[in-house]
Amino acid sequence: MAMMWAGRFSKEVDAKVNAFNSSIAFDARMYKQDIAGSIAHATMLGEQGIITMEDSLTLIGGLKEILADIENGKLEFDPNAEDIHMFIEAELTKRLGDVGKRLHTSRSRNDQVALDIRLYLRDEIKAIKKLIKELIETICKIAKGHADTIMPGYTHLQRAQPITFGHHLMAYAQMLLRDIERLNDTEKRMNVNPLGSCALAGTTYNIDRFRTASLLEMREPMANSLDGVSDRDFCMELASALSICMVHLSRFSEEIIMWCSWEFKFIELDDAFSTGSSIMPQKKNPDVTELIRGKTARVIGDNMMLLTMMKGLPLAYNKDMQEDKEAIFDAVDNIKLCLVTFIPMLDTMKVIKENMRNAAAKGFINATDCADYLVKKGMPFRTAYKITGGLVALCISKNTTLEELPLEDYRQQSELFDNDVYTAISLETCVKERKSYGGPSPESILAQIDLTQRKLGEIYG
Asked: Which of 10, 156, 397, 436 is catalytic?
């Protein structure tokens, strides 16, 4: 297959170089966006009188036929083509003759590929946001059913204070909401039109870049033609947003892995989302969540690859930038794969409430509430803190808990203690009375769920 640019050269490029140079193996997925950009370009060329309206309509018709033939399987991608842009243009020329050769007027592959990848990633962002929304809705549903399920909250992986399972889950809902907001911001900055930047210096033709932007539902044309073809900051920004989201999924996965272990046994995953051991018949492994942790490293690696690739490139286009697609496509593919697996895994898991409650009963996680009991009776917090620490030490020495410690032991530390201390330090009271905004009380959890659902409604109308 002769290269479109072969006129300058006196001999064929080495076959190994062609194979090395080719990108169709991974950029073929952008065929819809490439054709959409070409249709917009052909429309504008005709409207501006750069080509005849007859040729414009012929090009548009030919492009639509190619799209239909690709999608119904009549037309297969040529692995020998240099890239998706050259493949479609060559096919168009084969079908339309000289008319097909008019399509590339006032356009370069540099602005063409910059447009295609923006359009492709714009579509992928919408798909990813939809999956994150579904995950948030799943979290809200589970949290609503466990707004009063008591469990220990942790710092440093040490039992710290009593919370509810609903409270713990809703923390991830908030993280994921911010992930959607980051994707919205990325999409806004991505959705500008580089078409018309040409190779780097625009064109002498009377093109209308605002018209192509409108046809492609993009906010506006990019203001500088060099910038239009030479940056991939939108890929780096998207990879960064996806990396952050993957970190959230990875942290959630790590907790699920711990909760599944016999040391915690707070939850049990459905058999459909677990695997066994080849040698140990008792094993039920949370492989899905372990793979998500591993794929998080992969997406972060894609982000680092893009940053490193771009850091030393002079303006304008450089062939290094061909590597952008494999990295960002990999990041997109993997987060989608993780989300579509994580959502039903979470939705089908069994929550073992009694084990959560039993864990919360140990570890003196109501010690802060004991100190607060004294503060509410007039004692300075630091004094109350010290007294409560002494009570915890006493409990440890007697192998008992604050709930079981006799009142006389309390009163030896302070005369402010009375029988109502046992109500104040009960786990149910500890959780129920934490009504501060964003806290773990059942009342607060229901409010958080309502707020989250309203925010989703605002984002998605």
From this structure: 156
